[in-house]
Write a structure and sequence with these properties.
Elements (H helix, E strand, L loop, with lengths): L1 E4 L23 H35 L11 H14 L2 E4 L5 E4 L3 H10 L2 H18 L6 H26 L6 H25 L6 H31 L4 H47 L14 H15 L1 E8 L8 E6 L22 E4 L5 H10 L3 E9 L2 E11 L8 H32 L9 H14 L3 E8 L2 H8 L1 H19 L5 E5 L2 E7 L3 H15 L3 E3 L2 E3 L3 E7 L11 H14 L6 E3 L2 H23 L2 E10 L5 E12 L3 E3 L1 H10 L3 H21 L5 E5 L10 H12 L6 E6 H5 L2 H13 L3 E7 L6 H6 L4 E4 L1 H5 L5 H16 L3 E4 L5 H10 L3 E2 L10 H11 E5 L5 E5 L2
Parallel strand pairs: 14-15, 17-19, 19-20, 20-21, 21-22, 22-23, 23-24
Antiparallel strand pairs: 1-3, 2-3, 4-5, 4-8, 6-7, 7-8, 9-11, 9-14, 10-11, 12-13, 16-17, 16-24, 17-18, 25-26
Helix pairs in contact: 1-5, 2-3, 2-4, 3-6, 3-7, 4-5, 5-6, 6-7, 7-8, 8-9, 8-11, 13-14, 14-15, 17-18, 19-20
């Protein structure tokens, strides 16, 4: 007769819930709720089965009254013993749905019972044998259900046998009726078990259930036929019992061999299932968003391991499986229990089963173990256990324990040991891979210097809280000392400051606040359930703490912090703002602090400024093509001769929506967007075209074009300049490139070779805004330049500030000592021009001479304010009229 076993039961026609809840510490709340609901449903089903069994037994007993006397006293115990032996010799077959079925030989004593004992005796023998088997296997939690199932099996068998007997009209028990009744018992057991699977909401396909029922009927028919044939042979020929016994032993051997084949197939399927489960679990852990992890990137994935433990338990037919796992590096050992709950007070600190060497499966029985192991088994409430450590490179990753095999009287066997060892090897490999993935994931989402989140990590952590929108605030903190410390002391010292600043922010905000280092000395934090006022107070407190001096080794570095924040409640529409949008708003607020306040909250008007810059950048190329961008020219004259030496080309943008745009507004944005190359090429083309026209008119006027640091990083820039000079047939000496000291010295290894190449072409190179950058003789001597331009701030202050006057005189003398032409910008008064002329300054440029002019106005200016005089090489020289 088939038996059905769940996760914690094993007996004739017994079924138990496929998922006994694990302890509160190891089972998710949703799983505990579902398990309790399943238990309630199964208790109701048990009551129905037991009540039906009692009523059916009473009805069949009334229909088939007891016949017999004292001579039957020996038959009852004999049948009970026969049923017990049939139970113990069962062959286990696991079903993938989580239900364990056992092929037993209970049909043999049952079919014989039809001929030698009345209904009540067979029923009592079967119930006693079944319940005794359950108690021997410590399956006390399902006794009532199984008792009801035993009653229904036997009552349905005798009911069908009685009906067949009445239909045939024969005296005694005909073999056809006995065979029909015997086949009814396993069918009833199967239907009850399938109903239990349905009650417990475990999935089983209809096709699987039909195939299983068909196989059980086939096995039941073979068993019943063997028993019936044996009884009939012995009844007619008592001396034939050795032959019947031989047939029975042969059948048992065939069943046993078939069981081994099935066991190998089931083990391979189980191993494949577990491998897929752990692989899928690892993939889910790797793909799980950081919002489901703690600050250190550890995933919450106990649910997957509960499923894996259940599969291992099903395959081993164990009463309990315990997984003790260290899921992540430096993590605590976590415990997952499926099956019978562990007794309270399970301690593993000095547990001998946790200190097993190697990675081999150990089989412990309480009757054979040493005192320490026996005590450990008693603490677990187990009679036997399979224990295998999970190791990788001699590091303990976890321990797998399987307690008390349910399906066989002899306990765990060699196949169980082999299967658990192979599964453990897969689990250890999976854990090792997961730990590696956890390390890679941690590195991908964390800053290696500070250990804080990086930008991608912050994006993942903040995504869900910001989706809630109300009460979420993103803080951005910038230290303005990072670049200064890097230049003065080196990046190692700057890194120490960043680490110290990160610790201060962490201490100020607490360990639960997501905190990230974005780049350099910029940090971001996410505040949840904060009003804008609370966020402002937090930002003020944070800025005050970060602005305290930093003791770095033997130095104390002064620092200043700027904090900007953006709250979700400032949205002017109902569109959600993602993490990047909030970070951008906080960054806009930080930039707004440069106006004086050191803590600013984002307001929509701030975004309009940057939105305008973004719009300008996106429209710039089209504006070049549409003629909105033009070049104006500011004349430069020599001192003291007042001859027009050249012009400086200055870009202008007449925007159709914003009107005239100042170069200081759009040039930095264009440069940051990587479009400065197109702008430089445009200005160079216009300037060379203008110089070519002047040459055609007999005028020798040079043009100066400003270069960006990005131009000096372009290795192809000199070749582009040569192509432009050749295209317009302009001598290289009539082209001047102006560049700032800071732009050159930001990356001198890349800039100096480009400058030398331009200088060798004959192009004039000028240092612009001299006096505001590095301004040292050492730097100036490194540059292959021909001119130095005094910054206009010094020229404008010469008349009122003796210091500015001294600076200008020093620059003129320094330039001349190096053989350089000195150009003064910002000349707006006659006094300044006269002072520069007295110092020996070579060239003047400023509003006193002319403002920047368009091409048409420049032509008019040249005609109205200059006089032509014959120059050398048949060229005309323009002299400014006094």
């Amino acid at each position: 007769m088939p038996e059905s076993h769940g996760q914690s039961a094993g007996s004739t026609s017994a079924v138990s819930p496929p998922a006994i809840p694990a302890p509160e510490s190891a089972t998710p709340r949703s799983a505990r709720g579902e398990s309790r609901s399943d238990e309630r449903r199964f208790r109701m089903y048990t009551a129905v089965v037991l009540t039906s069994g009692i009523l059916a037994a009473i009805a069949v007993s009334s229909w088939l009254p007891f016949e017999g006397g004292v001579e039957l006293l020996w038959i009852g115990p004999l049948l009970a013993v026969a049923f017990l032996l049939a139970e113990q010799l069962g062959i286990n077959v696991d079903v993938r749905s989580g239900i364990s079925w056992t092929i037993s030989f209970t049909e043999i004593p049952l079919v014989i019972g039809f001929f030698i004992a009345p209904f009540e005796v067979v029923l009592a023998a079967h119930v006693v044998a079944g319940i005794s088997t359950l108690l021997a296997r410590r399956v006390s939690g399902r006794v009532l259900y199984n008792a009801g199932a035993f009653l229904l099996e036997i009552t349905s068998a005798f009911a069908i046998a009685g009906l067949v007997k009445q239909a045939m009209g024969a005296e005694g028990m005909p073999w056809v009726a006995a065979l029909a009744g015997t086949l009814t018992a396993p069918l009833a057991s199967t239907l009850l078990a399938l109903a239990a699977v349905r009650v417990l909401r475990r999935r089983m396909r209809v096709g699987t259930a039909l195939r299983l029922t068909g196989r059980i009927l086939v096995v039941g028919f073979v068993n019943a036929s063997v028993g019936l044939s044996g009884y009939l042979v012995i009844a007619n020929e008592p001396a034939a019992w050795p032959l019947v016994l031989a047939v029975f032993l042969g059948l048992a051997a065939l069943y046993w061999a078939y069981s081994d084949l099935l066991r190998e197939q089931r083990d391979m399927e189980a191993l494949s299932d577990v491998s897929l489960m752990v692989a899928r679990s690892g993939q889910q852990a790797a793909a799980r968003p950081a919002s489901r992890t703690d600050e250190f990137g550890r995933g919450v994935d106990i649910d997957e391991w509960v499923t894996i433990a259940e599969r291992v338990k099903d395959q081993l037919a164990a009463g309990r499986v315990v997984l003790r796992l260290r899921l992540e590096p430096d993590d605590v050992m976590r415990m997952v229990v499926v099956g019978e709950p562990l007794p309270p007070g399970d301690a593993v600190a000095d547990d001998p089963l946790m200190r097993l060497p190697g990675a081999h499966v150990r089989h412990f029985r309480i009757t054979e173990a040493n005192p320490d192991v026996r005590a450990a088994l008693l603490d677990r409430g187990a009679q036997e256990a399979l224990v295998v450590p999970l190791r990788s490179a001699n590091q303990l990753l976890g321990v797998v324990e399987a307690h008390d095999r349910l399906s066989r009287w002899r306990g765990f066997g060699k196949y169980d040991v082999q299967l658990l060892g192979t599964m453990a090897s897969h689990l250890a490999t999976s854990l090792d891979n997961r730990r590696l993935l956890a390390t890679l994931r941690h590195d991908a989402y964390h800053d290696p210097l500070t250990g804080l989140l990086n930008r991608p990590g912050f994006r993942q952590v903040a995504k869900d809280p910001l989706r809630e929108r109300d009460g979420a605030v993103v803080l951005r903190v910038d230290l303005d000392v990072f670049s200064t410390v890097s230049d003065a002391l080196g990046y190692a010292w700057a890194d120490r400051m960043v680490i110290a600043a990160g610790r201060r922010i962490r201490d100020a905000l607490g360990p639960q606040v997501p905190l990230a280092r974005l780049e350099g000395a910029s940090f971001a934090a996410l505040l949840v359930d904060h009003t804008p006022q609370q966020a402002h107070d937090t930002a003020e407190r944070l800025r005050a703490e970060l602005s305290e001096p930093y003791p770095v080794d033997r130095l104390t570095v002064e620092a200043n912090a700027m904090v900007g924040y953006a709250a979700t409640v400032v949205e002017e529409n109902d569109e959600p703002v993602d993490v990047d949008g909030m970070l951008q708003r906080a960054d806009v607020a930080v930039r707004a602090t440069r106006g004086g306040e050191e803590v600013r909250g984002y307001v929509p008007s701030m975004g309009q400024i940057f939105m305008r810059r973004f719009q300008l950048v996106t429209q710039f190329r089209q504006s070049l093509e549409d003629g909105q961008v033009s070049v104006h020219y500011q004349p430069k004259v020599s001192l003291p001769g007042r001859q027009v030496q050249g012009v400086e080309a200055l870009v202008r943008w007449q925007h159709p929506e914003f009107g005239k745009l100042d170069p200081d507004e759009f040039v930095p944005a264009v440069e940051a967007a990587g479009l400065i190359g197109a702008l430089t090429e445009f200005v160079l083309e216009q300037s060379l075209r203008r110089v070519r026209k002047w040459l055609d008119e007999g005028l020798r006027i040079s043009a100066a074009v400003n270069l960006s640091v990005r131009n000096l990083a372009d290795a192809d820039f000199p070749a582009k300049v040569v192509a432009a000079l050749n295209r317009f047939d302009v001598p290289a000496k009539l082209l001047t490139f102006e560049l700032t000291e800071s732009g050159v010295m930001a990356d001198p290894q890349r800039a100096l070779p480009i400058l030398r190449e331009l200088h060798e072409l004959g192009i004039v190179l000028a240092v612009d805004d001299f006096g505001t950058g590095y301004s040292s003789l050492a730097y100036l001597r490194q540059l292959p330049v021909d001119q130095v331009k005094i910054d206009k701030s010094f020229v404008l202050g010469m008349g009122t500030d003796l210091g500015d006057l001294a600076v200008v005189r020093s620059i003129v003398e320094l330039g001349h000592s190096l053989g350089l032409t000195v150009v003064a910008e910002g000349v707006e008064e006659d006094v300044a021009r006269d002072q520069l002329e007295a110092m020996g300054c070579d060239v003047a440029q400023g509003y006193l001479i002319s403002r920047p002019l368009s091409e048409e106005r420049l032509e008019a200016w040249l005609q109205a304010r200059t006089t032509r005089s014959p120059g050398r090489q048949a060229e005309t020289v323009l002299t400014l009229l006094s």
